[in-house]
Amino acid sequence: EAGVAQSPRYKIIEKRQSVAFWCNPISGHATLYWYQQILGQGPKLLIQFQNNGVVDDSQLPKDRFSAERLKGVDSTLKIQPAKLEDSAVYLCASSFPSRGLHNEQFFGPGTRLTVL
Amino acid sequence: GDSVTQMEGPVTLSEEAFLTINCTYTATGYPSLFWYVQYPGEGLQLLLKATKADDKGSNKGFEATYRKETTSFHLEKGSVQVSDSAVYFCALSWDGGSQGNLIFGKGTKLSVKP
User: Fold this and answer.
1) Which residue stretches of chain B have pLDDT < 70?
2) Least CA distance to B8: which residue of chain A?
3) What is the mean pLDDT of chain A?
4) Are B102 and B90 in contact (CB under 8 A)?
5) Which of A23, A52, A107, B47 has the fewest CB atoms within 10 Å of its CB?
6) Phi-psi region of A26 (alpha: psi -120 to 50; beta: other; left: phi over 0)
7) Measured between CA atoms, how close is B12 to chain A, in angstroms?
8) How many whole angstroms separate alpha carbon B101 and alpha carbon A33?
9) How far apart are CA A3 and CA A12, in angstroms?
10) Residue A13: its pLDDT value, please?
11) What is the CA radius of gyration of chain B?
């Protein structure tokens, strides 16, 4: 079974530029998550989708971050404009939701963003 | 709010040594608890989990017991190997409105020397 795919793996940009990350979840997984992992910290949820609808985006800095999952499969996370503090690894995860259970989230390898 | 606290690393052990990584949580209620592992250059992988008090999760020789009284979920392994070198994350999750959103600790880096 193919895992969660993410691209690019690495990205270096200058502050105030824009950047986009792509995620392809495991086939059949309706729930998709984007996490931000700053160096030395644990991942923090940015946004969660159920199919193509947003379940939780309470920690997404909406003035500069946006995400979409138009057809309920692939997802794109965008930052515009980027700030120095956005340097982090951006992780995508997916899970197969089952009501009442805590389902395993499968993580992609992440995209390491460096903002100069 | 809910949070997870892990012992700070890095932890350096010799092969076959006993491992304990402490994890405590703060939450109103009884969430599910997890340990995830991140090997160098790879994504996070679920190592083990426990969904209710007194449950013991186990996998690959690692164990952790959900202790409601001490709000803890310490990770243990009796004899570590070089291949266990990785970063270990403790996490909690609710099945409430967020449908399983994970809250992670800061991670503990383990290095095992031959």
Assistant:
1) 95-100
2) A40
3) 91
4) no
5) A52
6) beta
7) 17
8) 8
9) 25
10) 97
11) 14
